[in-house]
Backbone:
């Protein structure tokens, strides 16, 4: 079964990437990964992160390349490499400056979440009490993202903001990493209504394998995960579902504090730790197990190929090319 | 005569660009211009300048496009547009961070002067008493510029620094805008020894039309300018000479203060003014007059074509493609 999927594309990871992890991606059969390069970092800090990525590309150019267009996935596969697509999990990197979107797009950024758990300048986050929807700047930012070819990602946003983003955006949007509420109810999970709206607008959701997003957390079974995938497929169509593993391989636990608290809070949680991955999805090498699990539960091979990569590939094709003439 | 030159390329301008100036470039027959986007601006300020340029490209995409490769000149010409290549007149934009070179290259920057009149982190400037040559960081920056495809420009650097840059650089370097000392002796002018060394290393000098660089300043005659071009051609070969007009159309006089003093000095000159252009080269529309002057003085048509654009085109072809595999 392994290796029969034409393309494997992961819709979101936040690994501390290294030659070793890139090799594991290859072992898992991955052809493309959307990687998070920033959470709460301001513009200059995100540029420093990009500089580190540029060094990685230089040092590991036998294994990875920067992805700019969907067609780079094929290019990467042909040279036995992985295409890496940059994304931001919050809008801190554009500060209050809409012109930074195009600058960041030129530097390779292809995804941006409009908010991360909290209220942002653009949208509400999924942990806010009140979701005021897309802000004035948010609406303009969506138009600009559509123009330049950057994906609106609402994984950590509130429901109302997400529905409005779908409405405003002329291109399909993504929820790169989340699971449905019907399976595991959390503020980060997505309602049936939202998922259906996403699919009607030709969007894609990537199912998360981050333990806190799984029913039973680290003890979640592959069977339970695959049943959830099947039920979502019935609900919104198999063309609109994919994987966004949210893998955080190799990150020190301080990173979790940064993700959760950034610089916006003085309160410290008890030192958080990354939860243990379920035994059937420990790291990048385990993508074939998900393919196997989906086949096992009754998906056809062609459907598994869509879920594991084909759907993201189609979505990327609609997403990254600038709409402006230039 | 007008329009018989296949390509007209200006090796340096610092105009306050606008639709009107772009139209004048077209009237002058220009196909490509290296434009200065920053002098003493730090990285974030240069990004803000690029944002303004991005707006100009969006608003005037019937007239101009960002040039990334030499082949963009042909692409621009075919669509009746001008390819604009970004450059920095000082190294302030990279601060003390070598990784910013690749970031700025991704944003379109294709030229950087290692110093501007003063000592910089990389090299000495042409107005310093002492020229210590290329610094430790400077040597590494040249190697990195060679790797990514960014031109080392020594127009405002000291002689010793310039000779060392030629020595260290594996790619040919440029003096985008300056004139020879034999014609008009100033600290900004270039010695015979430097010009010969530049040419031996396959570099190019662009002759400046900034009045202070001209013999007799605003009163300089076209004939005198063309005789200087002819003498330089005899000295270093017609393949190594070009135009770098240093046109500063539309700039307010405060800009001259910024160019000269940046933030490095508390001393103010008496409010400087941009000098008046000679009557035969008022602005971008007058390029054909230079072509005419060069023919008049005895250059062959093919030589004029090289000087007006062909030599820069060849030089750009050797300069902008990253040498790294990617």
Residues:
């Amino acid at each position: 079964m392994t290796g029969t999927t034409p393309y494997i594309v992961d819709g979101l990871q936040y690994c501390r990437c290294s030659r070793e992890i890139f090799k594991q991606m290859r072992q898992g059969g991955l052809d493309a990964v959307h990687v998070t390069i920033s959470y709460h970092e301001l513009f200059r800090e995100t540029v420093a992160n990009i500089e580190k990525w540029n060094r990685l590309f230089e040092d590991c150019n036998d294994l990875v390349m920067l992805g700019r267009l969907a067609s780079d996935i094929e290019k990467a596969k042909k040279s036995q490499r992985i295409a890496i697509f940059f994304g931001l999990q919050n809008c801190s990197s554009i500060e209050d400056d809409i012109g930074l979107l195009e600058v960041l797009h030129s530097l390779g950024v292809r995804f941006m979440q409009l908010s991360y758990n909290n209220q942002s300048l653009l949208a509400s986050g999924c942990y806010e009490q009140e979701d005021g929807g897309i802000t004035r700047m948010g609406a303009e930012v969506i138009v600009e993202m559509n123009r330049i070819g950057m994906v609106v990602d609402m994984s950590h946003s509130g429901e109302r903001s997400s529905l409005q983003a779908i409405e405003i955006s002329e291109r399909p949007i993504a929820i790169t990493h989340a699971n449905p509420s019907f399976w595991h109810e959390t503020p980060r999970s997505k309602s049936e209504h939202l998922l259906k709206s996403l699919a009607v607008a030709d969007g894609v959701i990537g199912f998360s394998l981050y333990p806190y997003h799984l029913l039973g957390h680290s003890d979640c079974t592959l069977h339970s995960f695959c049943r959830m995938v099947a039920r979502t497929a019935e609900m919104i169509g198999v063309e609109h579902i994919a994987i966004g593993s949210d893998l955080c391989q190799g990150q020190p636990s301080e990173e979790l504090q940064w993700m959760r608290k950034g610089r916006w809070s003085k309160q410290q949680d008890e030192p958080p730790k990354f939860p243990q991955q379920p035994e059937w999805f420990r790291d990048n090498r385990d993508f074939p197990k998900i393919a196997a699990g989906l086949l096992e539960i009754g998906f056809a091979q062609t459907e598994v190929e869509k879920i594991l990569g084909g759907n993201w590939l189609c979505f990327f094709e609609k997403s990254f090319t600038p709409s402006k003439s230039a």
